[in-house]
C-alpha cells in the first residue's frame, strides 16, 4: 500500500515541477484601458475615472510608478536563459511649454516595484547619484526622454533609448518611425500630446532586442524597428522580475498617460484595440459655443458692465500678488511660480523662515502648498542697483544647467520691484557656517569630498556645458550642503557666459574681496582663470578653517594666502591646517589641497592650471605638483611668481613640469 502511495506522490511532484514553470513562463495580459485593472501604484501614478493610467500630473519635481502586481519569470527553468517576450503600449506625453519637455517615462523591467532613494527629474524616478550605473541594479529600461541631459550624454531632447542599469543609454535614436509607404524614417515629437504606440520585443534565441515606435494613426507596426540591439539579457536579469512604468516631473508641467498595455512571455503580445482605448483629457481651452460669440445686445451690454465691476474687484483684491512679465522670459525662463504660492510657502516671508542674508537679498525656506516640496526662495533686495541684470543672468545660466554638484533652479517669479528665485532646499545650509560658525566640525573626508564636488561643478561650467560659464563668486558661503552633506555650487547672480573659443567681454569688477584675481581688477575680463584663482583661495579656506582676510589675526596672518606661502617656505605648511581637525586627516590629501590652493591662487593667470587638471590632481590621475620656495605678495619684494611673470621667463622646472601645456 505504501509503495502505491509513494508512487502517486512522486508522479504528482513531477507533474507540478513541469506544470508550474510553464504557467509562470507564459504570463500574458492585455489592458485596453485600465478601468478595474489591479495595478501596483505609487507616487503620482493613478488610474483616472475613465480608465487612463496617469503616470504624472502637473505637480512639479515628483515621481510615479505603475507595475503589474505579480512578478514575471523571464528565465528558462532548465538552462537559465532569458525567454522571448513581447510588449506594446499606447502613450501620450504633454508639455505646457511647446518647445520644452520634461524627463519623460520609462518602460521598466526590475527586480522590485520599489526604488528606494530614487530621484525625480533627471533620474526619472529610478536611480540616484549613488547607484546610477551600478551592475547590481539589474534594471532594464526603454526610456521616452524629452529632456537633453548632458550628464547622461543624451543625444537630444526627443529620443528613445535602451538603458541597462544606467541612464546613459547603451543605444538611442531620435523619436521617429519607419514609414513603409514612404520608405524612410519620419520624425515624431514625443511630447506633442498625440497618442503613439511603442513595441518592445526580445528574441531569446537570437539574443535580439527590438524597439519600434509609431503614431497610432499608422495602420500597422512598422517593418523596421527604431532600435535594434544584440544583447544577452541573461547577463543582467535576475528571476523573477516586475514589469511596469516609471515617470517623474521637473519644474515644467508635463502630464503623462498610458492608454493601453499588452504583454506576453514566449509569444507575441496581443494587439491593442485602439478604438476601445479611453479618451485623453482636454489640454487646451474649450471651444466656446456660437451663442457666446453672437450674443444678444442687451445681454452683451449687461455682461460688459458686470465684467467691469468684477475686474475692478479682482484687481483690487489681487494687487497684493501682482506679477511682472517681460519678453525675455519667453526665451529664457524656466518654470514660473505664482507669487501667491511663494508668499504662502514662506509664511509671508516671515523672519522665522529666514535662512540667510547675502549681498543681493534674503533667502527663505518654504514648503509649496500643494506638493509639500521644500524649497529655498531667494528674494533680491529692492535697493540692489544691479538686481535685474543679475536676476536675468542667473535665470539664463543656472536655469539650463544640469549637474549633480550644482544647486537646481526650480523656477522664478517677478512682482513689481521684487525678484525671486526658487531652488532645491539644501537642508544643511552653506559650507561657511560649518567652517566658521557651527559647533559641529566637518571631518576631513567630508571636506575633501566637498572640494572635489565643487571642482567637478567648475569643470562642467568651464568646459562641458554648451557655453563657457564664469561664476565670478566662488567662496564657501556659495557652496551649499544637502542632507547627505554633498557640496553643491550655487548663487549664479554674477555669472557671465560666452561661447567656447570666444573672448569674454569687459565687465564691471564684481565679486567678494579676498577672492578676486588681480588681473580681473585690472582688465575687467571674466574668464575661467578668474574662477580658478577664487577656487585656490577656497581650497585654503576649507583646509585651514580661516577666511581669506582676517583683520583680527596677527599682522603676518591677516592674508590667508601669504600666511600659507610663509609656512610653506619655512617647511611648516601643515601648521596651517584647521586646528579643529585635530590631526584626523590624510596627510597626502591635505598637502595636495594646500599645494593646489597656492598653485591656483598665483598672480599670473597663465601659470594657473585649468579645472580639468585640477580635477585630475584631486582624483589622483595626475601626480602631485612640486612647489619651490615662494615669494609672499605682502613682502613687497615681488608678487607670487612675480620674477618669472614680469621678466617673461619660464617658471621653475618643477612647476613647468607639473603643469601640462593644456592648463596654461
What does this molecule look like?
This protein is of the alpha+beta class and 664 residues long. The protein has three domains: 23-271, Jelly Rolls; 328-424, Phosphorylase Kinase, domain 1 (2-Layer Sandwich); 431-663, Orthogonal Bundle (Transferase(Phosphotransferase), domain 1). Helices cover 25% and strands 21% of the residues. The strands form six sheets. Strands 1, 3, 4, 6, 13, 14, 15 and 17 form an eight-stranded antiparallel beta sheet that branches. A seven-stranded antiparallel beta sheet has the order 2-5-16-7-8-9-10, with no helix packed on it. Strand 9 (159-164) and strand 10 form a beta hairpin. Helix 10 (528-544) runs antiparallel to helix 12 (587-600).
